[in-house]
Design brief:
Helix content is 35%, strand content 23%. The protein has 71 residues and is α+β, with helices and mostly antiparallel strands. Strands 1-2 form a two-stranded antiparallel sheet. The longest helix is centred in the middle third of the chain and has 17 residues.
Length: 71
């Protein structure tokens, strides 16, 4: 999840909560940003997700976006 923390750090006013372990082998990371930063944040998350996929990282990943915020 370090790559996602780094990606969020490139977004102005983004807040990072975690990562923290919710059960053995499962971690949660929450990233929050102002509405004006939603598109850059999503782009950074997609880029990092693609990077990890290309690197064939093991394990699963779920990205959830608050649909009420993204228009």
């Amino acid at each position: 999840l370090d790559g996602f923390v780094t990606a969020a750090g490139s977004i102005a006013d983004a807040e990072v909560f975690g990562p923290f372990e919710v059960e053995p082998g499962v971690a949660r990371l929450t990233i929050r940003a102002p509405l004006a930063q939603s598109k850059p944040l999503l782009a950074a998350i997609k880029e990092e997700s693609a990077r990890q996929s290309a690197a064939k990282r093991s394990g699963g990943l779920r990205v959830r976006v608050d649909p009420q915020v993204i228009a």
